[in-house]
Give the backbone structure.
Amino acid sequence: MSLASENGALASPLRAEIAYAEPSMAGAGDYVALLKPRVMSLVVFTALAGLVVAPGHMHPVLAFFALVCIAVGAGAAGALNMWYDADIDAVMSRTADRPVAAGRVQPGEALAFGLTLAGFSVVFLGLMINLLAAGLLAFTIFFYAVVYTMWLKRWTPQNIVIGGAAGAFPPMIGWAAATGGIGLESTLLFLVIFFWTPPHFWALSLYRADDYLRANVPMLPVVAGEAETRRQILLYSLVLAPVGMSPWLLGTAGLAYGAAATFGGLVMVVLALQLYLAPRHTAEPVAKRLFGISIVYLFALFAVLIAERALGVQHFGIPFGRVLA
Amino acid sequence: MSFAMERQPSEPGIVLTAAQKRQRRSRSIAIALALGVFVALIFAVTLVKGPGVLVRPL
């Protein structure tokens, strides 16, 4: 069937197609934004820590390639998250300007972009580095895009507790890329990020509760109230402090790390206690401070870990750690 | 050549605005750069791994 009618006008199917296929207004920057570059930078940093801390030597080019694959995989998960969550993002002030929510990138484009990058990152990590690292990366992308984004986020106030595992895997992937295995050390790094996530995100959600309520996302402050959220933040901070110190206590990190983790853990607990005790009208600035400090805390721990290994610092963990390690 | 193909459609179809052309150009440059980086990375990894480039541990 000809698409042009007798008088040269376009036939209706093509006209409809043209109306649907509105030329994209997305720039390269929008596709970069789909990758959640700030989250990606934290993923790369923690994965780098896993790579650096791992025993043995990995060629720098291969290490860099592994990090690129992990970064692209994390970006792919971010793009898939923005594809699925565009409805939520559009009604939240913090996320309303994201490319899909703002309409600059079509949902199908974000989906294709995310799936393509996910496929490439996993396949090439598997082909060039090892299958365990690739499998962990694939599972992380699946966990973030499907388990967290599609299921947990809209279903339970424990969404960021369980979903936090997705953000905790990168050091384990880095370790697996370097060693081909999963050691006690990488499991400890996983646990540090896992227990760091709830105080970090719940502090944010305390002063963004209206956003989550409007988007109908069952974040803890929306479902259980502000007081319960502050109590949970304190409880998780109390767990986080010793977990943060565990790489030193078990002899897998040095004295500098031990000092940083002890001091940082103490600051986190004190801030969480301040938040717990603060009168309602003064809680917001404390929550914002806790949110900011939590980022510094995690960054500092992993930076010290990398620095210790780069400087060849001997580990001076408590002796029983040597027995366990 | 068919009759339909000989005749020019009276409607212009999709005509990009200057802003759309600018965005398309930025996307094209980004794709070119990404492809270049990808090729360079694979080349570098191939050099490092040598003949056993696809030999990998579990």
Summary: Helices of chain B lie at 3-6, 18-49.
